Amino acid sequence: MRAMTRTLVSVTTAVGIAAGSLVAAGASFAATPDTKAVASAEAFAPLAVVNLGLTTSEAKSLQYKYLRHWGYTGAIDGQLGPNSWKAMQYFLRKHWGYSGSIDGIVGTGTVKALQRYLKQWHNYTGAIDGVAGSGTTAAFKRMANVT
């Protein structure tokens, strides 16, 4: 009896799924296509805030003391977003060998140039490897806290 009940439930479920699929398929054929552009994930990637371990207060200090001199015109809000990083990339391009795009994305090239700067002025002792590890973030904090 159990086997027959299981079979009946399975068949009923399959028929229900098939019927629901047919109804949905009919509705999808009747729908008019939407021609609006769809935003990709890449379009939103540069909007990320990358504080590299800085507190909001430390990031505000960095925005005020350093980035204002390199074209940052945004709010002093403690959020190192793309505009903050574009200003940083201009600074790094001028003095520290950054050769990538001024795109506000904190990639390997940006971090390598930042590490070169931090090694020279803020006691960074790690490798110039483009990885923002604990040594990089500690030196970045020292940079932000310079008075």
List keywords for this structure.
6 helices, 2 domains, mainly alpha
Characterize the structure shown.
With 147 residues, this protein is an all-alpha fold. The protein folds into two domains: 2-36; 49-144, no CATH class. It has helices at residues 2-30, 41-44, 56-65, 82-95, 108-121, 134-144. Helix 4 packs across helix 5 and helix 5 (108-121) crosses helix 6 (134-144). It is globular and about 35 Å long. Mean pLDDT is 77; it is low at 4-46.
Give the SSE layout.
Blueprint: H1 2-30, H2 41-44, H3 56-65, H4 82-95, H5 108-121, H6 134-144
Provide a quick synopsis of the model.
This protein is mainly α. It is built from 6 helices and no strands. The longest helix is centred in the N-terminal third of the chain and has 29 residues.
Helix content, binned percent? 55-70%
Q: Uncertain segments of ≥5 residues (pLDDT<50)?
A: 4-46
- Work out the number of β strands: 0
Overall pLDDT level: 77
| Major beta-sheet overview | none
Characterize the overall form. globular
Number of alpha- plus pi-helical segments:
6
Order of helices and strands: HHHHHH
Task: Tell me the Rg in angstroms.
Answer: 27 Å
